[in-house]
Amino acid sequence: MAAERPVLKIAGTNQVVQITDDNSRTLMHPETGVAFHSASGALAETRHVYLHNSGVQNKLENGGEAKVLEIGLGTGMGMLLTVNAAVIGQGRLEYHALESDWLCGEIVRELDLERHLSHPVVCERYLAWRDQFGTDPKPGSYVWRFSPEISATVHHHDARIFSFPEPIQFDAIYFDPFAPAVNPEFWTVEFLGSMKKLLIGGGHLVTYCVNRRVKDALLACGYEIRCLPGPVGGKREVMRATRPC
Ligand SMILES: C[S@@+](CC[C@H](N)C(=O)[O-])C[C@H]1O[C@@H](n2cnc3c(N)ncnc32)[C@H](O)[C@@H]1O
Q: Which domains does the chain have, with CATH numbers?
C-alpha cells in the first residue's frame, strides 16, 4: 500500500501542499486531488526526468545554449531549476511554458522552491515578476527576461489550442501534463505529433509516463523511444522520445 505523505493546507485558499519523500514540496490539484509531482520526490523527479534526461542541464551548466518548451508550468519548479542551470554555467536559455491555470506568487511561495536553487535569486526574481500580474492574469504570453541571455515566456493559454505565432523549434520538450487518466487529450497521436514538429532533429521529448498506450502513440508519430531508469526512489522507468535527425 502507498505511504501517505504529510500535507499542509495553504491558509485562505483551497490549495494543499504535499511534502514528498525527498523533503521537497508539491501541490495537490484542488479539484482532482492529483499531485503535480511524484510523491517519491518532486525535486528528484524534476531534475532527473526533465533536466537530466533531456540533456538540457548538462548543456546549460557547461555554457551551452538551449531552447526548451514545457507543457504544464505548474509550480514553476522545472522552469526555475532550468534557469538556475543557465545561471550556473552562464548558458543561453530560451524557455517557453504553456499553462492554462497560472499559479500566483502566494501559492508558489509556499513551496519554498528557492531552497533547491544554488542561486535563490532566480526564484525571488520570478516571484517579484509574477506578482505584477495579480491572481488571475488575462490569457496572453508573458515574457520574463532574467538577463540578456536568459528568458522565460509563460503562455497563459490552453495548450490544446495554442499555436506559436512565429515558427520555432526546441531542443527539448518537458512533457508534464497530468497523467493520461486525468488529461487524456495530451497523450494522443495527434497532440504528441504536434509536439514532434516543434522539436529539432535529434531533440528530445522527456516525460514520466511509459505506459503501453503512450509508447504506441509515440511510435506511431515516428519518435525513437527509449525507456530510461527513473529517479532514485521513484518510478522504475521514464521516457525519452527523440525526433530522428
Ligand atoms: C503535472 S502539472 C505540471 C507540473 C510542473 N511541470 C511543475 O514543475 O510544477 C500539470 C500542469 O498542466 C496544466 N494543464 C492542465 N491542462 C492544461 C491545458 N489544457 N493547457 C495548459 N496547461 C494545462 C495544469 O494546470 C498543471 O499546472
A: 40-242 (3.40.50.150)
